[in-house]
Amino acid sequence: MFKIPLSGILLGASKVPTKLFVPSIGLHVSAPMKLKEIHANKVGGKLIIEGAFVPSPRKDHLIPNNSECCSLCNLGLNVKHTDVLILSQFVRPDGCMMPQRITGLCKTQQKRMSKLVSMAHKAGLMCSLAPANSKKDTTKRKLWKKYNTYFDESTIKVYESHFKKIKENVILDYVKSRNQEIN
Amino acid sequence: MSQLGRVKQWNTFARCWHLFDAAWQNPLECAPSIEKYLKGLNKPIYHPLVDCGDHVVVINSKQIAFPGEEWRRRVYFHHTGYSGGATWTPAWELHDRDPTMIFRKAVYHHMKGNLFRRVVMERLHIYSDSNVPEEVIENITNQIPPLRSIPKTLGSYSKEEIEKYPKIIDYPEDFILSKN
Ligand SMILES: [Zn+2]
């Protein structure tokens, strides 16, 4: 909000009474930064809906990431579409891919993961994570979809902008090291 | 002659029966390995004019797998001989009509066309599922190793196994967990 004309505002603020600049405390009713779960309970004839704070179910088995890059680049895994135990971490209970702001992956890995998730769904490997009205039994699907299919991961396109950045970084590192040698 | 050498000789001159499970296998990939057993290329006495091939029993041919869009893109051509008698059938449509046809065609077209081809093909027994007649099962002495591993579905893992698997990402702090 206060970006550039801060000094001007401060000058003006010295003339008005200080009470106007008390920060609005009553705006946030609940603590915003916590994992929540919505409960709907029926007590008598009333329906009570409340958001309860819960600890993260993944806390105990989480792999710590101390590097600058995202968690998948840090591990350096070659994920295949048959690795359903890894792919199921990136989807919601109905099987759809979670967006980048929730997964926290970089753009390249996010695109690659979403392709792998759709491959796993098409191959019928993650049928337990699907909407209730979907065809969970692959043999009851229509036309060619009822037959077994596997996929080749090398068909996933990797965008050049990703490599461009890596190349630039390599050149910059090289220039830096040369400068240090000269000095 | 040693005991092992005697058994080796029996195996060479006898007609063995091999089992092959076609579930999640690409028929075009496993045609070469099946041809090897059908013609007897693995035997030291092999010669094109020597009838030394083995029998191969293929089961679960309905569960063969193709990569990507191959089920739609692969077409099988047939011509009746009359004008306008050409037909192109997609692989999935042919598989609907006869679940053993794609596998048989894959092996047949992989082999070199000569007068022995149809004789060799007579030793290939394909079954769409695992219901194989008794008189065929009792002959089988060997299993051909599968080329592809069968992928495990998420439903085949137990709930505890999924929970205890190392997690790569955690939920963000203001995320709302949905039940079920
Ligand atoms: Zn990354």
Would you mind describing this structure in some detail?
The complex is a heterodimer of chains A (about 180) and B (about 180). By secondary structure, chain A is α+β, with helices and mostly antiparallel strands. Chain A has helices at about 5-15, 70-75, 85, 100-105, 105-120, 160-180; strands at about 35-45, 45-55, 150. In chain A, β1 (about 35-45) and β2 (about 45-55) form a beta hairpin. The radius of gyration of chain A is 26 Å and the shape is flat. In chain B, α2 crosses α5 (about 100-110). In chain B, the strands form two sheets. Chain B has a four-stranded parallel sheet with strand order 6-2-1-7, covered by helices on one side. Chain B has a two-stranded antiparallel sheet with strand order 4-5. Chain B has about 180 residues and is α/β, with parallel strands linked by helices. Chain B has eight helices and eight strands, in the order αβαββαββαααβαβαβ. At the A-B interface, β1, α2, α3, α4 and β3 of A face β3, α3, α4, α8 and β8 of B. β3 (about 150) of chain A pairs parallel with β3 (about 65) of chain B. Zinc ion binds near residues 69 and 70 of chain A. Zinc ion binds near residues 69, 70, 72 and 106 of chain A.
Please describe the structure with a list of short key phrases separated by commas or semicolons:
heterodimer, A: 183 residues, alpha+beta, flat, disordered N terminus, B: 180 residues, alpha/beta, four-stranded parallel β-sheet, two-stranded antiparallel sheet, 8 strands, 33% helix, binds zinc ion
Characterize this entry briefly.
By secondary structure, chain A is an alpha+beta fold. Chain A is built from 6 helices and 3 strands. A two-stranded antiparallel sheet of chain A has the order 1-2.
